[in-house]
Amino acid sequence: MNYRHSFHAGNFADVAKHLALVSAIAHLKKKDKGFAVIDTHGGRGLYDLSSREAKRTGEHESGIAKLAKASGEGVLGEYLALARVAPDRYPGSPLLAMKMLRPQDRLVAIEKHPEESAELRHALRPYDRARIVEGDGYKELLALLPPPERRGLVLIDPPYEDDKEFAHAAQALIAAHRRFATGVYMLWFPIKSEAAANAFCGEIANHGIEKLLRMDIAIKPPPAKPGRGEPLAAAGLLIVNPPFGLDDDMRAAALVVEPALDARMTIAWLANA
Ligand SMILES: C[S@@+](CC[C@H](N)C(=O)[O-])C[C@H]1O[C@@H](n2cnc3c(N)ncnc32)[C@H](O)[C@@H]1O
């Protein structure tokens, strides 16, 4: 377990993933009934963009640092306002979600790494509707489903430290969907090969999920830094049961994100029964 999200926080992939998260939560809030957000791989909640880790990769410079100079309406505007949490800081998914929740909603954020989970607890200390679990996100997830509210959003955002994680993440999504078929699920994945990404998404689409949206973002590969592997240049998000309007939100956001980040975003339904 060597992965630390501090090296990547606020990069192009975080921007796209967090935009979709903000859109999904905004749509869920259109109904009064409360809902649960379950973040299986929470990270530390708040990232210091001036830290040694963030400076070493500089990844946020081709992500949130560029987008923050743009102005946006709708979901993009809401995301940018939430992202401006404090100078040189970037909020992770549990903090972004928690900042949007109402008194009737709640968050469960799971994080396996003890140091990251302690930081997450600290970042979410002001919020009494946030529960932080130090443990394995995949195991904890099934025990939390279906949520008593019968309304919920699950973000599965693993580190993909090895290739087996694709299978683990896909199995977790499919098992969770079996238990709670009406939930909204977001599964993030890195794209190193288009063929492998298509196969991964196809495998999930073959499990009888009726509504499945795929959103990809790709940037021009940044120059490799000595001693580090090939930098990530593309990532995707599979969204099961996206709330009505999320796809249009993402298309609208793409009109600003693409030129700001010199990126390409694609939004496509893999199943829409
Ligand atoms: C990509 S980061 C999460 C980023 C976060 N979701 C966000 O968007 O701000 C993945 C996190 O998962 C944690 N992790 C790794 N394996 C885990 C597991 N089995 N269960 C829960 N957390 C895990 C890592 O320590 C890391 O903090």
Spell out the helices and strands N to C. Answer: HEEHHHEHEHEHEHEHEEHE
Bound molecules: S-adenosylmethionine
Report the count of strand segments. Answer: 10
What is the helical fraction, as a range of percent? 25-40%
How would the global form be characterised?
Answer: globular
Q: What is the C-alpha radius of gyration, as a whole number of Å?
A: 17 Å
Q: What is the residue-mean pLDDT, rounded to a whole number?
A: 95
CATH topology: Rossmann fold
Major pleated sheet: 8 strands, mixed
Write the layout of secondary structure elements.
Elements: H1 12-28, E1 36-39, E2 46-48, H2 52-57, H3 64-67, H4 74-83, E3 89-91, H5 93-100, E4 106-111, H6 114-123, E5 130-134, H7 137-143, E6 152-156, H8 164-179, E7 184-190, H9 194-205, E8 211-219, E9 234-240, H10 246-261, E10 263-272
Parallel strand pairs: 1-4, 1-6, 4-5, 6-7
Antiparallel strand pairs: 2-3, 7-9, 8-9, 8-10
The structure holds S-adenosylmethionine.
S-adenosylmethionine binds next to helix 1, strand 4 and helix 7.
Structure characterization notes:
The mean pLDDT is 95. Helix 6 links the parallel strand 4 (106-111) and strand 5 (130-134). The chain is globular. It is built from ten helices and ten strands. Helices cover 39% and strands 22% of the residues. The chain has one domain (5-272): Rossmann fold (3-Layer(aba) Sandwich). The protein has 273 residues and is α/β, with parallel strands linked by helices. The strands form two sheets. The chain has an eight-stranded mixed β-sheet with strand order 5-4-1-6-7-9-8-10, sandwiched between helices. Strands 2-3 form a two-stranded antiparallel ribbon. It has helices at 12-28, 52-57, 64-67, 74-83, 93-100, 114-123, 137-143, 164-179, 194-205, 246-261, and strands spanning 36-39, 46-48, 89-91, 106-111, 130-134, 152-156, 184-190, 211-219, 234-240, 263-272. The structure holds S-adenosylmethionine. S-adenosylmethionine binds next to helix 1, strand 4 and helix 7. Residues 1, 3, 5, 14, 17, 39, 41-43, 92-93, 110-113, 116, 136-138, 157-159 line the site of S-adenosylmethionine.
